[in-house]
Structure formats: C-alpha cells, structure tokens
Amino acid sequence: MNTPSPIINLAIMAESPLTRLGIEQFALSLNQEFRCQIQVASVYQLCQRVQEQPIDLLISGLAGSQESAAKGVEKLIKLCFLRPEIRQIIYIYSRCGKLLHRLGHQPQVSLISRQETQEQVRECFTQALNGFRVCSPKIQAAISGYAKEDITVWHRLTSREREVLHLLFDGFSLTEVAKRLKRNIKTVSAHKRNSMQKLGVYDDAELFALRMHFFGAEKILSAGFWR
Question: CATH second-level architecture of 8-143?
C-alpha cells in the first residue's frame, strides 16, 4: 500500500491576484498535494505572515507592491535564517545577477526564471519539490555573467586586501590576521572595509558568502541542479 504524500503548506507572494491564482493552479497541477495557507502582495507581508503559521514552501517574486527588489531580497535572506525549514522557490523575470547571486547562496532557495519554456519551468518546479536546489538556465546565465564581473573586481583589490580576505576566509580573526601580517589591527580592519566596499557587500555574512562565489562558483554554476 502506497503511503500518501504529505500535504505541503504553501505561501504565495505576487503583486497581482491573478498571478497568485495562476501560481496556485500551476502548483496543484504538479502531482503534489498543497494547502495554500497564505496569499499576499508583498515580501514584507509574506515574511510577517509566515512567522504566524506553519509553512513548508513559499513561491515568491523578488518584490511586491511598493517594494524594491533589493529590499525584497534582504527580507527573503533574513527569512532563510529565521525559518530555515521553509523551502523557497523564487519565480521571477528579473535577471539582476547581483541580487540572484546573493539569493543563490542560501541553501533553501531555488531560482526559476519566468522566461524559460513551459517544459523547463515545469521540470524546475518538479525538481525543487523533490528536494533539489534548482537554478534554471536563464538564471544560471545571469549569475554566471555577474560572477565573471565579480572576478574582475576581485583582481582589482590590492595584493594586501586579497591577502587579508584569504586569511579571513581561512577562519582567522582580525586579531590573528594582524599578528600574522605584523600589522596594526586598525590597518587590517581598513583593508577589510575597503575590500567590502569594492566588492559591494555590506556585512560579514555577505562577505563570507563570496568565499564560495570566488573559489567555487564555476563548479556550482555548472551543476544546474544540486542538493
């Protein structure tokens, strides 16, 4: 006797009610049993509501009503830390490599472009629902283009800035880096701060995400689907 599949508690964010309805109907067509618990028009509302009830999966764009994509991404990343058990499928037109790259480092997030063929979208959603992290081909291309730009930025760092980051990426504290390089900790902190400004990152979480980006991006991007 086959064990019935568990019901997936679903949250949907899209600015248009028709889009939300369309996403719900599409999800129901994927041979999974869903219970749509939340439908909202902004990422802010989404993040507020998922704190109040059990959700297994959310399907969302980057931003909703009166939100910027950058702010939406910040909220979605924060949600990854607050509710790590929730899988996120980000279904978008956007091809902003920088924003997609930041989301792509989150282990709960799959990225699917609305510009893929219908067959590709269906395959990507199916893979994501089966527990894989998914990066659809057009999203993968956007991230790859941004990765190449970022590698150029990496080489624009001074040799000392790169040396400081390498040591930080290897797990050394600022104090330990200062001792190893025989430099004042204020000097090392300045190198770190200047590097972050050049790389366009704003906190340590984003900075340390770049370790995988710079030293493992090609391997990750070539996979397409990954666990």
Answer: 3-Layer(aba) Sandwich (3.40)
φ, ψ at 66 (rounded to 5°): 55, 35
Residue ranges of E strands in the chain: 8-13, 34-40, 57-60, 87-92, 109-113, 133-134, 225-226
Q: What are phi and psi of 36, to 5 degrees?
A: -75, 105
Residues 161-216: pLDDT tens digits?
989 988 988 888 999 999 999 999 999 999 999 988 887 777 776 677 666 556 54
How far apart, in whole angstroms, are the C-alpha atoms of residue 106 and residue 25? 27
Name the strand (E) or helix (H) holding 3.
none
Query: Which of 214, 6, 10, 224 is CA-nearest to residue 120?
Result: 224
Task: Determine whether domain 157-226 maps to CATH 3.30.70.640.
Answer: no
What does the pLDDT look like over 81-128, one tens digit per residue? 899 999 999 998 866 777 787 788 888 999 999 999 999 999 999 999
Q: Under 8 Å CB-to-CB from 148, ≥6 apart: which residues? A: none
Domains in the chain: boundaries: 8-143, 157-226
